Amino acid sequence: MSRNAAPAVALLSGGLDSATALAWARAQGFECHALTIDYGQRHRVEIEAARRVVASLGIADHRIVSADLRAFGGSALTAAIDVPKERPLEEMASGIPVSYVPARNTVLLALALAHAETLGAVDLVAGMNALDYSGYPDCRPEFLRAFEEVARLGTKAGVEGARFTVHAPLMALDKAGIVKLGRSLGIDFGLTHSCYDPEPDGVACGACDACQLRLKGFREAGVHDPVRYRAPISPRG
Fold this sequence. Notes:
Blueprint: E1 7-11, H1 16-27, E2 31-38, H2 45-57, E3 61-66, H3 89-92, H4 104-119, E4 123-125, H5 141-154, H6 156-159, E5 165-167, H7 175-184, H8 209-221
Parallel strand pairs: 1-2, 1-4, 2-3, 4-5
Helix pairs in contact: 1-7, 7-8
């Protein structure tokens, strides 16, 4: 990588999408600064997955920041609410499920923006996509464009002329496309974690939305998913 490479802050949960987005940023020539947020998520094993992904990609700077959203709850990922299981795919494509964490991506991008401003960076990278996902409103292109405007108006760098960009290279891809892109970028899928309700040892449930969409993507891409599942279920619908 060039010593003059532009710095970029990449949000990294440890899941398939964010790992692929980080690998994309590295391939684009950015000097990557990975940022993982411990927000009190039920599936905190993904934080260890993020560490594994960073090590495998040779990313030198990886920050893990706490912002405990359990203080508010309101989600199956941050409160004592059952994670939906075995939902048909058409149901996932409509409505907003209880796994939605209120304002999560707004909070995560704001932290990435703060980190970027201290680095003199104007590029943020995130793994949102608007096709195979569970209907979250903060995974849409219009949300990201609105956040760029917030960054322009609400930061010292922005009012002084810096133009922030949120790169979402997976936005128009389905899960199969993400798997194929990740494979082409050398991602070791066995290092990643997607399940919302894993066993204590990290074994994926195979039935939550995240597991079903991941399994669908690997099946349609014709690629073996190396992570362990308790009871893999073919996506319904």
